[in-house]
């Protein structure tokens, strides 16, 4: 697959000095849109310049991605989000761009995954980013029961066809 570069990106790539940066979107209940560069409006959203660092962006032998995201935490905002909403399985997207090329098609998505392990201290929140792995997912992620909000359950023995899969509902 090839991609045509926009004029600003072509100019930025060919410049003597480049100014690379990342756009980072964390999908908490209120989405955080951060940038390692200057605050900018991109793709209809404002991306705030924050004390944020992305390191170790890599692809493993299994083809899955990982990275480490560090968020400045002087005002305890990010530790509050982590403690209240968690980071496990929270979607994270990262785009790379040059600060001289910020048109809609210029930033390139370089990571799409979820949060994993987190470390907190007074000054920083460190989140291990990992790829969403289908082999790590289970279905259903919670039990289907009245305790989990399922009040209208079909009777035991009901057969549900999902594609070529046949599921028979059983009780405990």
Helix and strand layout, with pairings?
Blueprint (H helix, E strand, L loop, with lengths): L6 H8 L5 E7 L5 E4 L4 E3 L2 E5 L2 E8 L5 E8 L4 H9 L5 E8 L9 E13 L3 E7 L28 E4 L2 E4 L4
Parallel strand pairs: 2-4
Antiparallel strand pairs: 1-2, 1-7, 3-4, 5-6, 6-9, 7-8, 8-9, 10-11
What would you note in describing this structure?
By secondary structure, the chain is mainly beta. Helix content is 10%, strand content 41%. The chain is built from two helices and eleven strands, in the order αββββββαβββββ. It has helices spanning 7-14, 77-85, and strands at residues 20-26, 32-35, 40-42, 45-49, 52-59, 65-72, 91-98, 108-120, 124-130, 159-162, 165-168. The strands form two sheets. The chain has a nine-stranded mixed beta sheet. The chain has a two-stranded antiparallel sheet with strand order 10-11. A hairpin with a 5-residue loop joins β1 and β2.
Q: Number of helical runs? A: 2
| Helix percent band | under 10%
Share of residues in strands: 35-45%
Give the overall shape.
Answer: extended
Strand segment tally = 11
From the N-terminal CA to the C-terminal CA, the straight-line distance is 50 Å
> Strand count, sense and closure of the main sheet?
9 strands, mixed
Which whole number gives the mean pLDDT? 84
**Alpha carbon gyration radius:** 21 Å
